[in-house]
Amino acid sequence: MALVTLGWLNIFAAIYDETANQTIWDLSLSSGRQLMFIAAAAVIVLMIIIIDMRFYETFAYLFYGLILVLLFLIPFIGKEVGGNKAWIGIGSFGVQPSEFAKFITALAVAKFIGSVGFRMDNLRNQAILFALIGVPIILIQLQKDTGTALVFTSFVLVFYREGMSPFLLIVGVCAATIFVLTLLVPNPVYLHAAVAILLILLISFGKKKLKRIAILVIGALLISGVIVSVDYVVNNVLKPHQQNRVKVLVNPNIDPLGVGWNVTQSKIAIGSGGFKGKGFLKGTQTKFDFVPKQSTDFIFCTIGEEFGWIGSLVVIGLFVALLLRVIFLSERQRSRFARAYGYSVACILFFHFAINIGMTVGLFPVIGIPLPFFSYGGSSLWGFTILLFVLLKLDAHRSQVLQRI
Amino acid sequence: MNEGRREIVQLVFVLVGLIFLVKLFFIQVLDNKYAELADSNAILRQVEYPFRGLITDRYGKLIVYNTPEYDLTAIVKDIKNFDSAKFCQVFELSREDLRIKFTEMKKRKEYSPVKPTLFIDQLSNLDFARVQDRLDEFSGFYIEARTTRAYTTSALANALGYVSELSKDQLERDEKTFYRQGDYIGQSGIESYYEEQLRGKRGVRFKLRNVKGVEKGSFKNGAYDTLSIPGQDLVSGIDLDLQQYGELLMKGKSGSIAAIEPSSGEVLALVSGPSYDPNLLTGSKYSSNFRLISNDTLKPLFNRPLMAQYRPGSIFKIAQAMTALQEKVITPETRIRCDKSLIGCHAGHDNQDLRGAIANSCNPYFLGVLRKMLNKGVSNSPFEDTRIGLAEWNKHINSFGFGSNLGIDLPNEKGGLIPTPAYYDQAYDNRPWKFSNIYSIAIGEGENLVVPIQMANFAAIIANRGYYYTPHLIKAVGKEGKPLAKYTERHYTTIDSSYFKIAVDAMQQVVESGTGQYRAQLADIIVCGKTGTVQNDPLPAHSVFIAFAPRDNPKIAISVYVEDAGQGARAAASIASLMIEKYLLGKTKRQFIEDYVLAGKFLDQKN
Q1: Do A293 and A207 reside in the same domain of the chain?
Q2: Cβ neighbours of residue B176 under 8 Å, at least 6 residues apart?
Q3: Where do the structural domains in chain B lie, given as residue ranges?
Q4: Mean pLDDT of chain A, nearest integer
Q5: How many angstroms separate the first and last alpha carbons of chain B?
Q6: Which of B60, B167, B405, B468 has the smallest C-beta neighbourhood within 10 Å, fewest atoms?
Q7: Distance (Å, rounded) from C-alpha A14 to C-alpha A8?
Q8: CB contact, 8 Å: A288 with chain B?
Q9: Hey, is the C-beta of A8 within 8 angstroms of any chain B C-beta?
Q10: pLDDT of residue B324
Q11: What is the pLDDT of residues B360-390, one digit of tens each?
Q12: By C-alpha distance, which of A164, A151, A168, A305 is closest to B42?
């Protein structure tokens, strides 16, 4: 099984190599570096396989503490790249601790879930879990790296798998729906009116008990409150560039040369690929810099333009297969720690995959997070490599683990 | 309690993947919009301009050609180690100039630090030669060459016209969408009339460019590129020497010379005075010079041979005579008394026949002729009778090419006026009119209007004894070597050819013993001519002369107008005969006549 996964990874790496080569055609430096990163990743893989599996579980909290300190220190010692102060410079290369924070948080969360006496329905345990992901979110948000911070919310899906009530998820989905509706409907008064009508309908067509009516009214008021606050947050709390990204999502045509440039150009590049694509190295949009950040966040444009829908199908297919495979591996783990960790890996990968491709095709707002294994950048590649191979290591030794559940 | 959750998570993963694939299918496969947008993003249409056709004279001498002009452009990003002192010295700029050039450049709409932007426009050949060798000292500066029109001579300006950037109006009127903004187009004269032949065909090259507009090579290795096709060359019928001589003679005068080869209709010379140097309206000096020239009170842009409308004067009597002979209301032997009761006349003749009346320009004779023609007694009503007569008269006169545009190959030609019954109905507000109201047209005064080119054509008709080819400047277009089809068609007048002998005789008599004897007579060549003096009260009359020569097998027909110069026998007759001499003999043998013309004092002497 480990070999099969490795095979997938190789395919990823191969495609990655090609895409990297051609997107950064005239900057051979970048593709060369990426090759170096891949080599380094191989070394990391080797190290992971050599190191005893207990090492990860044992030192999970220690790492967690260390990374928090590092994250905390970054605003003071880090160097600024693209408006985000998330890098620690080592020579000419930069390292993004937040990439590794994902892995370490996954370990810590898994260890906590896997610890003796852990019960998801215990409110105190739940609070600790949320604190485990909440602290890095806050620290990373302080670096203004909203994208990476948001990745940590994907752990909620892990909690759900490990027994958390789906209520939180449902509330989350509802809140998101209301959020989008608020943005789509130009005047919030209409939404408030809709909520009021719904409320009246529910009251008149149900049992007219006082308690039920009271709950409905409170619910309606809560929803209205959410609408008001979303409106307020979007217009007053978010920074202008974040506001714009959200607005572009709702209406991609508002300003195709300014605010909407990224998404518009990204869609043009992908859309111009057609069914079969323009062919390797033939993409005009990505090659000539019409798409911004085409080697990092908008790497998917290159695939879409040069390999067309078929290429996109293969890439998305591989990602989904990888995700399912990771779930499969997680489910067969004997320790709760390993299983929770596996789910964390799947969720982090999924979040990156969904948000990144979603933003390039205009389904999500532009959030600067890389596409795993594709985007240029050492930290991110190493981060994902570690995530995945620690799981494989755990999987390889699953028989040695005592059943603890 | 956690059973099924695994499946839910898996379902979410697969679902998101599917949503992406469906969305991608929509934008990649179903929607062509994105592919088109991508092309407009990355493919640059670069137009390659063709060379405009050349224009030569009838002997192959170059008149109009193209000359390279050089713009200095700058790519700001590439400017390194800029030595402004040295730059100022090489380009002969002051520090202040340089500063202004930089600010001007950055204000340009198309300015981009990574693209070549115009820095100094239209360096002359001289400047270019000077800076060429030292240009490599200034990185980021480049020379871009393009061509503009140039003229070997300062003559023929109004006939040649000029080329300039097409206006917004012209762009909007261009229905075939041939032109683009910034294109150059012939604005007047031959440049405008033969625009389609001269302009050639543009080539297009498709180039790839990146987001900043920087070129990145050709699209599909130039598979869709087309080469530009140069414009067709034109051979004009102009004799450049004759033209330049004509301009010399017209120097300091207002008026025109139009000379035609009768056997072909080719224009040998077309002088409009005053004129301008066509080189003033090319290149960088265009806009400032154009304003200067178009505001000139002497109207150098007014192309007199085609646009100045005059009353025809005495010369018209020849046309009257031809018409009357054709209508058989007179014979060459018809004599009419010089009765000055209605109309004045010159002294020294009485009761002449037709030839004598033409030679002496007898006004009462032609009054009588017109009366015979308009009042033939077809109707009992004098009004109706005149109306019928005038309609017939008009038909004959029009067949000489009067009364409407001849159709010369130049724009803005005027047609003059030959009155019709309808014209007088309107002029008299539909009240009745008869011969006594309109008789002044008999002697070429009254309502008649002609332009000089029509008069030259009239001389050609008499030279040809009854037909003409529409006058045209271009005798050969492109490689085919033929003029436009309409200029190979012979137009006959409604007058029998035999009657023209009388006109020829009379015109010979004018030059040998009549008004033209002093200044139009040549020793070796029989010149046939007719003077005209067009009243222009209160200013002195316009001096007019038409002629052709030699009498048999004529080579040149000419009309000369000199405004405010008095009698036709003076300025116009002198100039016409000098032109004939120049064309047929190469130079004049009568230096005193040339001096007389160049001195230009036509009013202060007896004769």
Answers
A1: no
A2: none
A3: 66-151
A4: 71
A5: 133
A6: B60
A7: 10
A8: yes
A9: no
A10: 93
A11: 888 899 999 999 988 888 888 888 999 999 9
A12: A305
The whole-angstrom separation of Cα B383 and Cα A350 is 105
Beta strands in A31-161 (DSSP E): 79-81, 84-90, 93-95
Residues 30-59 of chain B whose Cβ lies under 8 A from any Cβ of chain A: 31, 33-35, 37-39, 41-43
Do residues A366 and A262 touch, judged by C-beta distance below 8 A? yes
Read off the pLDDT of residues B70-88 as tens digits, 9 standing for 90 and up.
Answer: 778 887 777 777 888 888 8
B21/A312 touch (CB, cutoff 8 Å), yes or no: yes
Kindly identify which residue of chain A lies nearest to residue B27, measuring between CA atoms: A271
| Chain B residues inside the 8 Å CB shell of A270 | 24, 27-28, 34
Residue by residue, DSSP assigns B98-165 as HHHHHHHHHHSTT--TTS-EEEEEEE-HHHHHHHHTTGGGSTTEEEEEEEEEEES-SS-HHHH--EEE
Domain that holds residue A188: 170-237
**Measured over all CA atoms, what is the biggest interatomic distance in chain B, rounded to whole angstroms?**
140
List the Cα angle A345/A300/A88 in 5-degree steps: 60
B22 touching chain A per CB within 8 A: no
Using a CB-CB cut-off of 8 Å, the residues of chain B touching A265 are: 41
Query: 């981060």: which residue's tokens?
Result: A383
Percent of chain A with pLDDT over 70: 63
> Are A350 and B2 within 8 A, CB to CB?
no
Tokens 């046939």 sit at which residue?
B528
Which residues lie below 8 Å from residue B426, measured CB to CB, with a gap of 6+? none
Check whether residue A58 and residue A207 sit in a common domain.
no
**Structural domain contains residue A405:** no
- Cα B58 to Cα A70, B168, B554: the distances in Å are 91, 36, 18
Residue with structure tokens 């891949």? A38
In degrees and rounded to multiples of 5, residue B310 shows phi and psi of -125, 160
The 8-class DSSP code of residue A370 comes to: P
Start-to-end C-alpha separation, chain A: 24
Please state, in angstroms and rounded to a whole number, the distance separating the CA atoms of residues B393 and B418.
10
A153 and A13 assigned to the same domain: yes
Last residue of a domain, one of A191, A216, A237: A237
Please give the structure tokens belonging to residue A351: 């979040």
Residue A84 lies in a domain: yes
Q: Which residue of B has its CA nearest to A261?
A: B211
Contacts (Cβ under 8 Å, ≥6 apart) of B246: B257, B259, B269, B271, B575, B579
ipTM: 0.73
Strand, helix or coil at A4? helix
- Whether A351 has its CB under 8 Å from any CB of chain B: the answer is no
**Closest Cβ opposite residue B37 in set A268, A323, A327:** A268
Task: Pull the structure tokens for residue B245.
Answer: 């001589």
Residue B6: closest C-alpha in chain A: A161
The last residue of one of the domains, among A205, A237, A269, is A237
Neighbours of B211 (CB within 10 A): 15
- B196's tokens: 């389609």
**CA–CA separation, A121 vs A124, rounded Å?**
9
Residue A170's SS3 state is helix
Count up the domains in chain A and report the number: 2
| CA B280 to centroid of chain Cα atoms | 17
**B545: which strand partners?**
B531, B560
Within this chain, do residues A98 and A24 fall inside the same structural domain, yes or no? yes
Shortest Cα distance, chain A CAs vs residue B212, angstroms: 8
Distance of CA B266 to the CA centre of its chain: 14
Length of chain B counted residue by residue: 607
Sign of the alpha-carbon dihedral angle for B14, B20, B25, B28:
negative
Tens digits of residue pLDDT in A385-394: 788 878 877 8
- Which DSSP symbol is given to A398? G
Q: How far apart are the C-alpha atoms of A228 and B399, rounded to whole Å?
A: 89
